[in-house]
What we know:
With about 250 residues, the protein is of the alpha+beta class.
Amino acid sequence: MDFFAGFAWAIPAAFADPLEKCRFERGDVFYDDPKASTADWEAARRAARRIVQVRLPQQGDTAKQDKDAASVFADNWRRSAEIDLIETKDLSTRTIATTQGRLYTYLWRDEESLLDLGTPEPPLPMMAGDLRSRLEKAAANVADQVEADGPASLFVFAFDHASTRLREKNLDIRAALAGVTGCKEMVFPVEPDKGRDPLPTLCWKAYLLPGLDGDVITDLLKPALYNPQSDREGKADRFSISRHGHIVPLEG
Length: 252
């Protein structure tokens, strides 16, 4: 079983949708040790010290949210939740009223005080959309960490492992670049900014492309990234690679 990196608790990859929306529902169960996630109850008790079992909200108990993923995440951050926190040593259980954002942060940081409604609300983390203004500078920093054997280019963009849209986008990019000899896919951490930490699922994704310049890369990626839509005058939108990522030339 695969788990999300960056969390103190074991969060299986199957929980990508709850992480993307910041919405946990009744029946969701998390362990503080990944070995417990694939074990029977007795083995899980031996492997894990604590278990989180979500009581509220009920499954599907939400209004229709016709919003982008970032707006849904932000809306859910302060919505109420209720959990059972179980100590496996003696099976003692505490029922805790909290919020979705506090639960998310607890699973991330493993600081129990964050669940308490009487403590300051955890700040909303940086999301992929917040990284647009940082892309060019971040791409340059990523380039400083990459060595190329000769002339090459890097294509760098913000990536969220929990995002359905960005996972699909990366698959399209990977397929478009599959024929490039020596192509290498890499990930780099996102640094905090002005006191805000990035989501633990965020990273910078980079593709090293030996021997290719920006024009060639743009031509390769355009079919994968371009979704033409007519504007009010009936003219097709112009493709811009900068809407999707940043290309950095490397001298090698």
